Amino acid sequence: MPDQRDRRGRRYRLNAVLCLCVVTVLGGARSLAQISRRARSMDPQLWAAVGFGPGDDGRACLPVTTTLGRILAGLDGDALDDALGSYLTVLTTGDLDDSGAEPAGLAPALAVNGKILRGARRADGTRPHLVAAATHTGVVVGQRQVAAKSGETSCFTGLLEPLNLHGAVITADALHTVREHAAWQTETKNADYIMIVKCNPKHLHQQLKRLPGRTCRWGRGPATVNGQ
Q1: What is the pLDDT averaged over residues 128-139?
Q2: Cα 147 from Cα 102, distance rounded (Å)
Q3: pTM of the predicted structure, to 2 decimals
């Protein structure tokens, strides 16, 4: 993770602060104040394991609420998502081999979907909109924040670009049924796709309805599998 703070005056290591936040949130903390309170009630051995050494009084020197807020606000969200996604990808596919090569494939199937966060706000007061890629077992291996006044489709290729998708099947809802995305998945990433087709785009929907035989229907529209 890149550390955006000035080297002068750094009192806490970034990885220690992030680890502390993860541990306390997993323990039920839902705000910066709760993270700070729960951190001070933790076992001292856990402080040391997280990365905080003892202060002058023998207790761990932990960041206060305002310090936590400044550090977290200065993080590069996309870099954090990339780091977490890379870690979870290795857990999903197995450790890297001795040569350091990437795993042979990410997963047999990967779902792309977006959500608006309920408990967070941007500086302008709007709720953050995230689009994520997850295995069908629920492991999120990639995530991007959608820019203000933009849509999920603008993040599609950037979200999947770092991932090894060779042989994988990408599933997405009708919002991502875009010609350029379909071509990019098959031609650039050697992946297959299943996309939902609704009445928009109109011409593609009409073409699928004219196909002979029964058309598989999901939701309100037929499905297209790699254009077939």
Answers
A1: 88
A2: 30
A3: 0.68
